[in-house]
Design a protein that fits this description.
mainly beta; 8-stranded antiparallel sheet; 1 helix; 14 strands; about 0% helix
């Protein structure tokens, strides 16, 4: 079976914070507040098969509230809220969640989700997120063809703040029996978290 190890910039592990800009140069395809006001997710085809918990996926579904799923679900137009217990407390399984929170993107022209796909990696940026406490929060997930993935966090501008997580970062397998919620302190500006699959004997 597969498990995942991870290490983070804030722990002095040598994982570099290297934001991949797909937002300001026209590379990334944007979906804004108006789109997500009437849809749960954006369906994206991958040119490679991404291996996740021993299965391979050639499509991903980007959800407004801060996660990617590999399972196609009905569009409920509900903006899924993060569960109190993860991964067991939610129907949303088979996900990679850089920051699944009680938040949404701003209504500005530059806010929203962006995705950019190459033959070897998929980059998804969630730009200018906030709620009544947080502001200008940007986060990114990078999926690589080899099954590794990375989360990154940054502030949109000088007034950006993460007052509290009001959500979680983590990932879970297809039926929600395996998964990890990573420490809340990892949801921090200029931090990166690198994940690697580890095959374990059963």
């Amino acid at each position: 079976s597969t498990a995942y190890s991870y290490e983070a910039t804030v722990d002095g592990s040598g994982v570099p914070f290297e934001w991949i800009d797909i937002e300001t140069n026209g590379k990334g395809e944007q979906n804004n507040f108006t789109y997500y006001n009437s849809h749960d997710f954006v369906e994206v085809n991958l040119p490679f098969e991404f291996p996740f918990y021993g299965k391979k996926y050639s499509k991903m579904y980007i959800y407004n509230t801060g996660f990617i799923s590999f399972t196609k679900r009905n569009d409920q137009k509900i903006w899924p809220e993060p569960p109190a217990d993860f991964p067991s407390g939610t129907i949303y399984t088979n996900i990679i969640a850089p920051y699944w929170g009680m938040h949404t993107m701003d209504m500005s022209k530059t806010a929203g989700t962006y995705h950019y796909i190459t033959e070897n990696e998929a980059v998804v940026s969630f730009m200018e997120y906030g709620n009544t406490m947080n502001m200008g929060v940007c986060f990114q997930v990078i999926l690589k063809k080899d099954g590794t993935f990375k989360y990154q966090y940054k502030g949109f501008g000088p007034y950006s703040i993460i007052y509290g997580a009001f959500g979680l970062a983590g990932f879970s397998n297809e039926d929600g029996t395996q998964g990890t919620k990573i420490p809340e302190r990892y949801i921090a500006f200029n931090n990166a978290v690198q994940f690697k699959p580890v095959v374990t004997q059963t």
